From TrEMBL:
Record-linked Pfam families: Peptidase_M14 (PF00246)
N-terminal signal peptide: 1-24
Keywords: Signal
Active site, renumbered: 396 (proton donor/acceptor)
Name listed for the protein in its UniProt record: Peptidase M14 domain-containing protein
Organism classification: Bacteria, Pseudomonadati, Pseudomonadota, Gammaproteobacteria, Alteromonadales
Amino acid sequence: MMKLLKTSSLLLPLFLFSCTTAHVIEKESPSVVANTTTEQLTASVISSADETSLTSAIKPVKLTSITNQSCAIGKVRLTANFAAGRMDECKRVAENEFDIILVPENTPINSSPWYAFKIQAEQNTDIKITMRVRGDNHRYPPKISRDGKTWQLQKYKIKGKRLIMKVTASPKPIIIAAQEIINNQYYVDWAKKLTDENSFTHSVLGLSTQGRPIYKIESRNPQTNEWVIILGRQHPPEVTGALALFPFVETLLSSSELSNYFLRKYNVLVIPNINPDGVDAGNWRSNANGLDLNRDWVDFTQVETRLINDYLQHLVAQGQKIKFAIDFHSTKSDIFYTMPVDYGIEKAYFVRHWLAELDRQMPNFNVVLRPGNNPDLGVSKQYFSDKFGIHAITYEMGDNTDRTKIKLIAFKSANILMINMLSDVDHDKQ
């Protein structure tokens, strides 16, 4: 089996991200972070999936998002009227100078201030943009795209609570965003390409709170009843989780010899975009009801989580078995949230064996495991372990992790996962 890993080809997602140009930050105060390609802008960012925070105990308070149209007129225009676009409040404060305020959809909330807007001018014009976050700090350094496909880090500086950047606006629109924009249509296009020339299915699982389709991809072999479940995009800004999910799924569902063996023994269910309403709105964290879906895997108050639970219960009622689950997220660093080995789930050391081999094969990548048991928090990892007695992990990629590295980690981890699930190693022993 180890030879198969070496011969499998790397399947890359459609997005390109250029990190070849140095990211320069002009230091004006001690609060400026020196290297945001490897660190967060603020050290106070809470983990996206497994933290025990106030958000699990306090009912969110809905806020009204205000879009000031004074930036959408004149010779230079800033607009956010597109899928995943968001800048909340915008005001022209001087000739070719603009202030933007980012506002959360509810409070309290995880610190993930999302923004995405287009800039266009009648002629080439140098402009200055100052961004502030209402009641919070900046998390994501700005990225710029001139075609909506390739992205580069945009130069900026932080002065106190303000993020300041200078950009040359032109007749051709440019996009500034917190992360690469992966909107709902991108998932549809990706899934169509993935399933067009094989037996995998791409269909609608159900509709979101606002009536948007939630899609599922399935590889189903009638000769087996064991399932691997893959989830993604519960939290809209967590784009690096999506950038990991794409090559991970592509590797599992590839035409490699290893994948062929794997798909004979295991069915695969992928629900890559659980929160299409939040993605479309550019929400920081929530679905259309202002609620964190990854705190709803106990009560299932939201249609998005309820759809998935109902479908899995339907599979089990038909005699199918859920064997392993992965939920893709992003946070300030690369972390694998796991269940404790003494939690009583089957094959207690399976995840440790899998990720230890990933660590061994990637000496330049530090595999960090963080076991945790939070039965009342309502995260998907806990749900899978409690409901089905299996291992489940939250697969977190850092906000600023190199995009090529994210792909390589996903490719390696998917291949090693398949090898481990096909092997006769005793995963009940360390």
